[in-house]
Amino acid sequence: MGGEYEGMGTAYGAVSRDSSYFEANPAASATLDYTELALFHTNLIADANMESLVYTIRYEDLGLGVGGKFLHVPFTEYDSFGEQQQAIRFTESIVGLNGSYNFLNSFYFSGVSLGGTLKVAYRNNPIRPAQNQAGVMVDLGALTRFDFLKLFPARERNSAVSLSVKNL
Fold first, then answer.
1. CA 54 to CA 47: how far, in whole Å?
2. Please, which residues have CB within 8 angstroms of residue 113's CB and are 6 or more apart in sequence?
């Protein structure tokens, strides 16, 4: 989810400066500058599409977010004469709740953010209902920003390090 996230080839964990953090690093919600509501539509291969929604808000050093993705892949069956027999959709949905906190935040140090996202997923296969699946996952992350070889103090940091563990 997110243009900058996709544009960077998903190497976004340490950058995480907008609602795209939801996919990259759950610790970043505690460091965002603005409350955001983001809606995304992504055209994938053939007729497959993905719709996404993220809402995030920050209270001092506490960041909270909620988001979801809905992937739908149409499948149209044709007989040997080219007549349409049926049209169905395979779907996958993921909804997540995020929380993070930024510890030790000061003027000279941006702190260390720790966060997690609890996700619930469901896959629907209308052709083989026995293959429908549900799951629960957790993403965990850490993020810190700091000045490296910067000779003047400022709120904006020029370096960052992050760690993310996804889909546990």
1. 23
2. 27, 28, 30, 31, 63, 100, 101, 102, 103, 141, 142, 143, 144
In whole angstroms, what separates CA 59 from the centre of its chain?
20
Q: Which amino acid would we find at residue 159?
A: S
Q: Are 154 and 166 in contact (CB under 8 A)?
A: no
Question: How far is CA 77 from its chain centroid?
Answer: 33
Q: Hey, how many other C-beta atoms are within 10 angstroms of the C-beta on 83?
A: 8
Please give the helix or strand (H or E) that residue 3 lies within, else none: helix 3-7
Strands across the sheet containing 133-146: 36-43, 49-59, 62-78, 84-103, 112-124, 133-146, 159-165
Q: What is the pLDDT along the chain (168 residues), one digit of tens a residue?
A: 777 777 777 777 777 888 888 888 999 999 888 899 999 988 888 778 899 999 999 999 999 999 999 998 888 777 788 777 777 888 999 999 999 999 998 777 888 999 999 999 999 988 888 889 999 999 999 999 888 888 887 777 888 899 999 999
